[in-house]
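In this section we walk through a basic example: taking a raw amino acid sequence and producing a predicted 3D structure, encoded as discrete structure tokens. The instruction is simple. Fold the sequence below.
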Amino acid sequence: MDRTDELKALADVQARLQERFPELDSEVVEAAVRLSHSRLTGRVRDFVPVLVEHAARDRLAFAVRDGDTTGDTPDEVHSGGTAATPSPGGTGSHDRSQG
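The resulting token sequence is shown next.
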């Protein structure tokens, strides 16, 4: 997957997540996607959009479940960071299994 394809796929991910979480501001959804994407730095890029979607979906579900529409997610709540900047050494929510 080249960079252009990856960016298009991430835009599609963001659109799907915005539809799934209409109660969240679009900036919150965008921040969750960007944060999730920033943590995936490996050479193999084919599965990046899928991994980003799962991690961002977990972050957004956490925000909705806890009634937090500001964009603070587990990593940011514990580190004091913001949704747009990853916390150093934080754990990615993509490590959790889906139910």
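Looking at the output, two observations stand out. The helical segments are 3-20, 26-38, 48-65, 74-79. The two ends are 28 Å apart (CA to CA). In the next section we compare this with other chains.
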